[in-house]
Amino acid sequence: MQKKPRALLRTTLSLTTMAALGLGLAACGGSGSGSSGDTVVIGYTGPLSGGGAAYGENVKIGLEMGVDKVNDMGLKIDGKDVKLELKSLDDKYVPSTAATNAQRLADQDKAAIVFSPNAGAIKAMQQVNNGRSKFLIGAYTSDPEIFTTGNPLTVFGTPNFNSYAEPFTKKAMSMGAKKLSLLGTQSEYGQQWTTVVKKAWADAGGSVGADNSLDYATVSDFAGPVSKALAEKPDTIFVGGPSQPTALIMEEARKQGFKGSFFVMDQAKLDEMATVTKEDNLHNSMGVAPVKTMTESGTKKFLEDFTAKAGKEKVATTESAFTFQFVGLFAKAMEDAGTSTDPEKLRESLKNAITETDESFHVATFPTDMTAEGRLSSKEIESAYLDDKGDYKLFTVPVLPDK
What is the CATH number of the domain that holds 132? Predict the structure, then answer.
């Protein structure tokens, strides 16, 4: 969707995106020392090894690109020239580790913004960010429960996934699908997604099979779970977790003769999965729209810069795009607030920063508002159907309000 032009920032747009990390910074890709003088640390705690490593790396690349762009453009906070510095730590998808990382970054590096792309980790961080340690959590998750915790120092960067369930169901059923099988991930996030999908499908008059969810992070032989799902003779299979294992599950389903459609959770990305398996295995799938199909004002340049940084073989996903643009948004909030260390002032500044952020940061459905709960919101978001010829057919999904 092409957004209408907004006021350009000037030269100092940047976001100290929300991120936290802790221990072992050097081993996990951190750069430099702590916040001192004219340097503001941006922290990131995420999965940089194990089954979610590629997902965590996508987030990290977006943050790095945002930090680099802000530093190239220039940033002033309270009249002083400031450079952003990203520090990254591998939490291996373990919530308690993420909370420790975030608290250490806030306490030792004086970071007021801590970023995490994991619902379980964010919940753990919410237990420590508004007490002795105070820091703003940048929550990159569509988990609807996170939106309603009432934590005053959390900002949410994506629409809740309830928005996708009904439109994806309608799309599948418009092609004649009636029975749904469930092969989502066993993570807390995946199970919440599964619950929402089951309800949407049943409400639309379809039948739902047994929950055959599996641990995408540890299971490597998908033949058994896929066989159980296919024994139900489904028209559509719900799948999703990180892109790499999701692609292999879809590949296995095709190997076992599945001819129907896939209902793909928002964490997995269709174009990224096409680097893991033949695109033919992904045909007839509903999922989030690839960044390459976006028409925001900054998308083309972002894609060029992403390729220059990550190489032609790596796909720019919405994780990279969203976190990149959040850096610009939060940098503007820091500029307006005149501080990089006061989380309350930063959160308060975000609403106005939305309309003032430089359009070069508008890459993937840039937010138009921020709710009282702290969710950066837009009225709709692009989704895609990958048809049987390998063409992406875009359709708009209205963003549901948080409950």
Answer: 3.40.50.2300
10 Å Cβ neighbour count for 77? Answer: 21
DSSP 388: T
Q: Are residues 229 and 155 in the same domain?
A: no
Q: What's this model's pTM, rounded to 2 decimal places?
A: 0.85
**Residue 144: half-sphere exposure toward Cβ, Cα within 13 Å:** 17
Q: Of all residues in the chain, what percent are helix, strand and coil, respectively (each to 5)?
A: 40, 20, 40
Q: 168-191 pLDDT, tens per residue?
A: 999 999 999 999 999 999 988 889
Q: Give the span between the Cα atoms of 175 and 331, in whole angstroms.
A: 45
CB atoms within 10 A of CB 309: 14
Per-residue pLDDT tens over the stretch 269-317: 999 999 999 999 999 999 999 999 999 999 999 999 999 999 999 999 9
Return the C-alpha torsion angle 41, 45, 48, 52, nearest 10.
-140
In angstroms, the CA 402 to CA 159 distance is: 9
Average pLDDT over residues 37-53: 88
At residue 18, the pLDDT reads 35
**Is 391 part of a structural domain of the chain?**
no
pLDDT at 29 over 70: no
Asked if residue 42 and residue 131 are part of one domain, the reply reads yes
Q: Which two tokens stand for residue 17?
A: 């995106």
The closest alpha carbon to 403, from 49, 149, 180, 139, belongs to 149
Beta 136-139 vs 39-46: how paired, if at all? unpaired
**What angle (nearest 5°) sits at the alpha carbon of residue 263, between those of residues 194 and 186?**
35
Q: What is the DSSP string of 305-328?
A: HHHHHH-TTS---HHHHHHHHHHH
